[in-house]
Specification:
Largest sheet: 7 strands, mixed
Number of strands: 12
Number of domains: 2
Helix content: 25-40%
Low-confidence stretches: none
Strand order of the largest sheet: 1-7-6-5-4-2-3
Radius of gyration: 21 Å
Order of helices and strands: HHEHEHEEHEHEEHHHEHEHEEHEH
Mean pLDDT: 95
Distance between the termini: 56 Å
CATH topology of the largest domain: Aspartate Aminotransferase, domain 2
Shape: globular
CATH superfamily of the largest domain: Type I PLP-dependent aspartate aminotransferase-like (Major domain)
Structural class: alpha/beta
């Protein structure tokens, strides 16, 4: 029943990595809630010996995610930052990482407060012009870390051009594809070596799990990351893997609705007299629009904006005034969320660093869900009209 090798995305989302349960015929992958496996003799087993190393529910999820990203290997983790942490643990003191200066706050915190004290070196740069990356590469640069679209400024970077420059120098290219999801963007096909996801977001899609994943076709990286899975144990439980598999089955359907609603919300905000600047790659005058149109299927479900008065106090009033948009961390669920990056997702980044990267304290970020478009627009209009 598994998907044929030439199946398209929606069919892969439903079937890849999964077979009916051989003992019962159950069409859904069972939740193998076990910590160990019986062996017929010492070190003689049916592919599994201890649940930290492997679990059949996790195996199905890893196969599914690998197929969606066009990868040979999928490695599931307990969270997105666990996936990021494991990649960084494969480096050694003195190694150097180049990343965008418009970066998720949790990634920045992990890099600067956890790994930098242990000897890794980091440079955060504007990667908008691929040629500029040459100036920040060093002889000890081992990774180029790319987010695109970025969180929360929605900048778009040229994966293929950056990857070409990095790989010419033997530098591994990592792309955090959380904002786009594999439905909208497949970085491995553009030259990336590793793709990272916070599966908590669009892959899960229902705000009921925490998970992460790394997808790659590089056998050496797969071996290194699986060694860390075995040795350090940053693994997801079988229930979370089951929930992720349920989520990916509707990923293509949800992403279309996210994109439809985000486009409508962005255009509404742009025309509203109390709104200042709207960031959305779908606008033709967005600096990354042409590139996004080239390397993405659509423009995503994320929108960020500032108000006409650009005052943080007013922004907070708007965020507290919505009823359909919930004021909360995270993104990518079926429900719409509104957040304040400067104090929430990016609060761990020093103010001077945020501002230098172009992230104003008054910025509002929207994760546009799959509710009815008219209700979302009415909700925003009500909140904006009250200020």
């Amino acid at each position: 029943m598994s998907a044929p090798s030439d199946a398209r995305f929606g069919t892969l989302a439903v079937h890849a990595g999964q077979e009916p349960d051989p003992s019962t015929g159950a069409i859904m992958t069972p939740i193998y809630q076990t910590s160990t496996y019986v062996q017929s003799a010492p070190d003689v087993h049916q592919g599994y010996d201890y649940a930290r190393v492997g679990n059949p529910t996790r195996t199905a999820l890893e196969g599914n995610l690998a197929a969606l990203e066009g990868a040979t290997h999928g490695i599931a983790f307990a969270s997105g930052v666990a996936a990021i942490d494991s990649i960084l643990k494969c480096l050694r003191p003195g190694d150097h990482v180049v990343s965008t200066d418009d970066l998720y706050g949790g990634t920045y915190r992990l890099m600067t407060q956890v790994h930098e004290p242990w000897g890794l070196e980091f440079t955060f740069a504007n990667l908008t012009e691929p040629s500029d990356v040459e100036a920040v590469f060093q002889d000890n640069t081992k990774l180029l870390w790319i987010e695109t679209p970025t969180n929360p400024l929605l900048r778009v970077f040229d994966i293929a051009a950056l990857a070409e420059r990095a790989r010419a120098r033997g530098i591994t290219v990592v792309v955090d594809n959380t904002f786009a999801s594999p439905y909208l963007q497949q970085p491995l096909s553009l030259g990336a070596d590793l793709v990272v996801h916070s599966a908590t977001k669009y892959l899960g899609g229902h705000s009921d799990l925490v998970g992460g994943a790394v997808l790659t076709s590089d056998d050496e990286w797969d071996e290194k990351l699986r060694f860390l899975i075995k040795s350090a144990g940053p693994v997801p439980g079988p229930m979370d893997c089951f929930l992720q598999l349920r989520g990916t089955k509707t990923l293509h359907l949800r992403m279309e609705r996210h994109c439809d609603n985000a486009e409508a919300v962005a255009r509404f905000l742009r025309d509203h007299p109390k709104v200042g600047h709207v960031r959305y790659p779908g606008f033709e005058d967005h600096p990354g629009h042409a590139l996004a149109a080239k390397q993405m299927r659509r423009f995503g479900g994320m929108v960020s904006f500032t108000l006409e008065d650009d005052a943080i106090e007013t922004a907070i009033r708007v965020m507290q005034g919505t009823r359909v948009f919930a004021l909360a961390e995270s993104l990518g669920g079926v429900e719409s969320l509104v957040s304040h990056p400067a104090s929430m997702t990016h609060g761990s980044i020093p103010a001077e660093v945020r501002q230098k990267a172009g992230l104003p304290d008054s910025l509002i970020r929207l994760s546009v869900g799959v509710e009815e478009e008219a209700d979302l627009l009415q909700d925003l209009d009500r909140a904006l009209s009250a200020i």
